[in-house]
Write a structure and sequence with these properties.
- The protein is α/β, with parallel strands linked by helices.
- Strand 2, helix 2 and strand 3 form a beta-alpha-beta unit.
């Protein structure tokens, strides 16, 4: 599993030739407060069932509030054969504080 800071992740997204899945694993109420454009919400508790419908070869950037839940989900996916998993270090909170201060924080 790779870990990228918000700045590294933004650069990765800008330079990527294929669109990775931005997988937000927070709760719906958190997602309503703030989310990254283009992200898909699948709460952490739903990952085991949802993983069956994800492409294990696709690049997946896992996102949560501070990067802890997303790290757990990234490890889970890697242990199930997903080969291109990236954790957003610091989560959406760090993204809002470092890259886009217009985003809400909580």
């Amino acid at each position: 599993m790779r870990e990228l800071t918000p700045v590294e992740c933004k650069t990765y997204l800008e330079n990527s030739t294929e669109k990775p899945l931005l997988l937000d694993v927070r709760e719906p109420w958190e997602y309503r407060i703030v989310s990254l454009e283009g992200s898909t919400l699948i709460p952490m508790r739903d990952i085991p069932a949802a993983a069956e419908n994800l492409d294990p070869a696709q690049a997946i950037i896992v996102i949560c509030h501070h990067g802890i839940r997303s790290r757990h989900v990234a490890h889970y996916l890697e242990n199930r054969g997903f080969s291109r998993v990236i954790n957003l270090h610091g989560g959406v909170d760090a993204w809002a504080r470092e890259l886009d201060t217009r985003l809400s924080t909580y």
